[in-house]
Amino acid sequence: MTTACTTGMAPTYASSAANNSLAGRIDALPSSAGLWRFITLLALGGFFELYDLFETGYISSGLLAAGIFHTGSAGVFGIADQAAFASATFLGLFVGASLLAPYADRFGRRLTFMCALMWYGIFSLLMAFQQSAEMIILFRFLVGIGLGVELVTIDTYLSEWVPTHLRSRAFAFSFFIQFLSVPAVALMSWWLVPQTILSLEGWRWVVIAGAVCSLVIWFIRKNLPESARWLAQQGRHQEAHRVLSAMEKRCGITPGADFPQDDAAAQLPKKGRFSEIWAPAYRKRTLMLVVMNFFQAIGFFGFGNWLPALLSGKGTTVTHSLLYAFFITLAYPLGSLICSRYADKFENKWQIVMTSLMTVVFGTLFALLNNPVLLIICGFLITYSNAWLTFSYHAYQTEIFPTHIRARAVGFCYSFSRLSTVFSSILIGLILQYAGSQGVIVFIVLSMLMVMLSVGIYGPKTRGIDLENI
Question: Which of 51-65, 236-250, 313-327 has the lowest mean pLDDT?
């Protein structure tokens, strides 16, 4: 994996006197095995977050078969329990991203990161043993809170540790690791959901597997270093120098000389305020990201979470739709891995626009096709474009805010993607019921057009620019 990501990059050395600033030393980190191992450790947490996120659509059939979930007005809230389950997930994500993710700016990336992973693992495990739709939906909401904090913190953590020239490539590789979870949960659901093992329904084993493995990863990642940029911004100069020196050793180079006390990273306020994301310098960026997140989530999760149902609407059986979905979801990790070869060659904003256009084109074709082979090919291409879009916008939104408000700003903007999905999950269920899978695809296509317009017109350029200068 390291070879695929490191070829073509000439190493530079942190001991060079050309630029001894904190940003300069981070930018001088070579594309080494040590750096990619660090990125992989971060991504492993995201693996189980996305595993849990995407299981929403796959385990619902098992919950229905077990008689726990009901369709239509027989559901807990007078709507299909699958829709309520998905909405509870994203409502929890909204709460976590908007209200709790800012703690990463206050208490640090590492501590917030580890607490969120533990929270997710414990409540996910508890959810697997609930017997009623009400309790499963409640625990799903609590799981979503941990997911919301975790995903925002991973992004800020990663952007602050990776050299400028590797930022987009690092996000692509990180999402390659994370997206391996999508075919994993699809395959496990196809295999386990129809079965009962040790008196436990298959859907419970799908949930238990993700929860237990995430808790194992928690122990593996306890030794991750804090963000040097965050430490410097907090005035903890010697700690920042120490963790940065350790990272340089991890990457196989001689640690650089201590950066100046008046380094740009240390000049930022120790504590950010919510009002700062609406300051004239950042107001347009905040609004642009709010619109982008709101509508991209409809396209991404609308297709991903409802893929088996959309395929069933095309006339396939539940078993076949899950199997087709498995092949289609292979595009998530493969797309990210392929894109890691050229992710740093283009502006992130134009990658977001182009991938949204791909979803519009192939989404329209998906709505018109009925042939199983063509459906899989078209679904694969939609998923490929969604994978490309995901790492592009995750990298992009962490680049355009300063360190002291980065988690707060990203969490606020990102939370709108979760808020939109709370309602769109219910809305897509209604559209699927009354207008069929073609109506759902039209809804997704219109949403992606909004993404293209907002980012294409109002998004700033970030390629090749230090975080401190964007």
Answer: 313-327
Half-sphere exposure of 121 (CA within 13 A, CB side): 19
Secondary structure string (H, E, C) spanning the chain: CHHHHHCCCCCCCCCCCCCCCHHHHHHCCCCCHHHHHHHHHHHHHHHHHHHHHHHHHHHHHHHHHCCCCCCHHHCCCCCCHHHHHHHHHHHHHHHHHHHHCCHHHHHCHHHHHHHHHHHHHHHHHHHCCCCCHHHHHHHHHHHHHHHHHHHHHHHHHHHHHCCHHHHHHHHHHHHHHHHCHHHHHHHHHHHHCCCEECCEEHHHHHHHHHHHHHHHHHHHCCCCCCCHHHHHHCCCHHHHHHHHHHHHHHCCCCCCCCCCCCCHHHHCCCCCCHHHHHCCCCHHHHHHHHHHHHHHHHHHHHHHHHHHHHHHHCCCCHHHHHHHHHHHHCHHHHHHHHHCCCHHHCCHHHHHHHHHHHHHHHHHHHHHCCCHHHHHHHHHHHHHHHHHHHHHHHHHHHHCCCHHHHHHHHHHHHHHHHHHHHHHHHHHHHHHHHHHHHHHHHHHHHHHHHHHHHHHHHCCCCCCCCHHHC
CA triplet 53, 56, 62: central angle to 5 degrees? 145
Q: Which pLDDT does position 4 carry in this prediction?
A: 39
Q: Tell me, what's the pLDDT at 423?
A: 76
Q: Are 120 and 12 in contact (CB under 8 A)?
A: no
Token digits of residue 343: 């992710």
The pTM score is 0.81
Q: Token pair of 26, please? A: 């981070």
Residue whose tokens read 């740093």 = 344
Spatial contact of 358 and 366, defined as CB atoms under 8 Å apart: no
Write the pLDDT tens digit of every residue in 82-95.
878 888 888 898 99
